[in-house]
């Protein structure tokens, strides 16, 4: 098995590519672009093993341009210039198509060098990246490229590739492999949408079998163990899972929230799970049930003291509690409205009667004169607290939940009394 099975089975046409129907389905923009032969500068963004390189190679094979391949992890500025110098050769007379894998690893100077040569159209760039290009690719290059996002491939699509891989392996190695029921489905469902992982699993199983032993379901699960986890603590997958976790808590879907908690814990990311859970208790439950904050804090403290795997127990309790609790975002809305006023320059001097009067000369300056002590008036007395320019500002609005409505009713009764 000198050539990896994934390379031996790499599709040669768009119809052989599994997945990406939103890009390569009939009538989709990328497919129409490829079929037209008029290829603009492109950036393919998505996780590993979902077809970015395969589609780039298919495009390259369909053009009459001179193909050059570079990888951002190893190429230098001199490598880039060498590619561009080929424009003046006989082979490059129809233009150059540069396939640049992992473009995010080019530094800013290298990306600026690249920009110089793609502007005049003599070099067509097809770049791929597993990182969000809007964070990692120089803005001037982004403005000259069309970005297409590749997504993890669905298990039913990967199953097609797995079946083809077993058939191809039998032909390549002239061996008949006996598969237990469910082997292909187990591989397809456990590879996290990564076709290359699935094909590597097939290759490993075929090598381990040698044709002398049946390929069992247990063996398939062993080679694909944990491979469905797609998680990078510094990448999009990390933030996508955290976002889904918090939005599920906010949306009162305890089952989805538990799913994303499980993904975080399986990846060993205990701290991120704890932080988002505490934030959600304050931001999304908030004043609808203020007592939830110390309860969730206690659960988090317990989880951090216990560590994994036992930490999953108090965290699961806290997740269910937050997800099923009444919700109110009035607190965060109030403080954000106050901050917005400040950031727009809407402030003003503290009213004189609220200023500090605990020093000699304060009264001569008019500070603290006229302040009315609320407890002398039964707990509330009418007086101005905000600066003059904001005296009518309203940041907090009582929510419709039981807790805040009770507070509103208390406010009404309190202020109905004459101070």
Written overview of the protein:
By secondary structure, the protein is an alpha/beta fold. It is built from 19 helices and 5 strands. It has helices spanning 5-8, 21-24, 29-36, 52-62, 77-85, 108-118, 133-136, 139-142, 155-172, 183-190, 195-209, 217-223, 236-250, 254-266, 270-285, 292-306, 312-324, 330-343, 402-415; strands at residues 42-45, 66-71, 96-101, 123-129, 146-149. The chain has a 5-stranded parallel β-sheet, sandwiched between helices. Helix 5 links the parallel strand 2 (66-71) and strand 3 (96-101). Helix 14 (254-266) runs antiparallel to helix 17 (312-324) and helix 15 packs parallel to helix 17. The radius of gyration is 31 Å and the shape is flat. The mean pLDDT is 87.
- Reading side by side through the largest sheet, how are the strands ordered? 2-3-4-1-5
H/E topology pattern: HHHEHEHEHEHHEHHHHHHHHHHH
Helix tally?
Answer: 19
Largest sheet: 5 strands, parallel
Please state the CA-atom Rg, rounded to the nearest Å. Answer: 31 Å
Strand content: 5-15%
Structural class: alpha/beta
Uncertain residue segments: none
Q: Output mean pLDDT.
A: 87
Number of strands: 5
Query: What is the straight-line distance between the termini?
Result: 90 Å
Helix content: 40-55%
């Amino acid at each position: 098995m000198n050539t990896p099975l994934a390379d031996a089975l790499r599709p040669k046409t768009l119809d052989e590519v599994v997945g990406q129907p939103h890009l390569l389905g009939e009538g989709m923009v990328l497919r129409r672009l490829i079929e037209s032969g008029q290829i603009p500068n492109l950036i393919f963004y998505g996780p590993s093993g979902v077809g970015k390189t395969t589609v780039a190679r298919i495009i390259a094979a369909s053009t009459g341009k001179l193909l050059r391949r570079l990888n951002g992890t190893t190429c230098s500025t001199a490598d880039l210039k060498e590619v561009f110098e080929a424009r003046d050769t006989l082979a490059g007379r129809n233009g150059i198509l540069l396939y640049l894998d992992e473009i995010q690893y080019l530094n800013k100077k290298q990306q600026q060098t690249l920009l110089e040569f793609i502007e005049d159209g003599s070099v067509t760039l097809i770049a791929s990246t597993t990182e969000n290009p809007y964070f990692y690719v120089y803005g001037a290059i982004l403005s000259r490229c069309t970005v297409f996002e590749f997504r993890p491939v669905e298990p039913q699509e990967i199953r097609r590739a797995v079946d083809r891989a077993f058939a191809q392996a039998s032909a390549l190695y002239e061996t008949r492999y006996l598969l237990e029921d469910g082997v292909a489905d187990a591989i397809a469902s456990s590879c996290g949408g990564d076709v290359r992982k699935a094909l590597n699993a097939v290759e490993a199983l075929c090598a381990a079998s040698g044709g002398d032993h049946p390929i069992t379901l247990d063996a398939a699960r062993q080679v694909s163990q944990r491979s469905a986890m797609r998680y990078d603590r510094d990448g999009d997958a990390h933030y996508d899972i955290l976002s889904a976790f918090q939005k599920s808590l906010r949306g009162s879907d305890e089952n989805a929230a538990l799913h994303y908690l499980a993904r975080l814990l399986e990846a060993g990311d205990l701290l991120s799970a704890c932080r988002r859970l505490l934030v959600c208790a304050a931001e999304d439950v908030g004043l609808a049930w203020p007592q939830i904050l110390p309860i969730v804090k206690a659960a988090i403290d317990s989880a951090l003291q216990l560590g994994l795997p036992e930490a999953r127990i108090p965290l699961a309790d806290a997740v269910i509690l937050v997800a099923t609790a009444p919700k109110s975002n009035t607190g965060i809305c109030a403080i954000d409205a106050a901050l917005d006023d400040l950031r727009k320059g809407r402030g003003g001097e503290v009213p004189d009667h609220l200023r500090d009067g605990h020093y000699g000369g304060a009264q001569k300056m008019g500070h603290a004169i006229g302040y009315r002590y609320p407890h002398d008036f039964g707990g509330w007395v009418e007086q101005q607290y905000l600066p003059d320019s904001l005296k009518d500002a309203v940041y907090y609005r009582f929510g419709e939940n039981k807790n805040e409505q009770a507070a509103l009713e208390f406010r009404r009764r309190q202020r109905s009394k004459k101070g």
